[in-house]
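# nightly structure sweep
# worker-07 picked up a monomer target from the shared queue
# config: single-sequence mode, recycle default, output format = structure tokens
# input follows
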Amino acid sequence: MQAAEPHESVPASIWLRDEARPTRTSPLSRERIVDVAVTLLDRHGTTGLTMRRLAEGLDVTATALYWHVRTKDDVLDLALDHIFGDVPLPAPGPDWQTDVRHVVRGWRAAMLRHPWAPGLIGRPMLGPRVLARTEYLQAALTRGGFADLRLAVTTRLLANYVIGAALTEATFLHTTDPHARANVRRHITADPFTYPVLNASGHLDTERWNDDQLFEGGLEAILALPPHTSHTLNTE
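# output follows
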């Protein structure tokens, strides 16, 4: 690995660093590190993942681990990209909306299988698996007539929507027991005069609207937006 010049800063993201892989023969590899890291993240979350615990799970010393990854942030970036590799990318079909639905639903499913993932999406998403799926998404939108700023806006809208939905589901539904969820709804229904619309709409009523219904409805609302508008988006 070539050392950076004194006046140069080393990029924080593993995806932006030009690193040489270790040349010595070793049973340890980045792929094995990531597999164990994902298992630990699924079990303990991001706060429970430490380099020491990861080394113990791999049955290696911390020194051996640092030959392959520099920091915990490197491990998180690699793990995040790894789980998005589970989102299949079929050949593009004749209907661009079907392709968009496919990749967005796949993103949500991947994050719900790994509830620690949505909270990391603010990190640079530059891994090859994530970029391949973003390329697939934008290619589908482009076939639907989206271009330039409208393409960028719609891409961000879809990304923020699926991340927000997965984060809400992963934190509220996956970590809160059913009795507590019922108490949340009762807090609203107990005061119908203050919250008449929330009572009528079934806000936070998981028995009336489940997550799949809400997610699909939101996705369809986004896909119904026209690729072109009669007014130019205000960029000021």
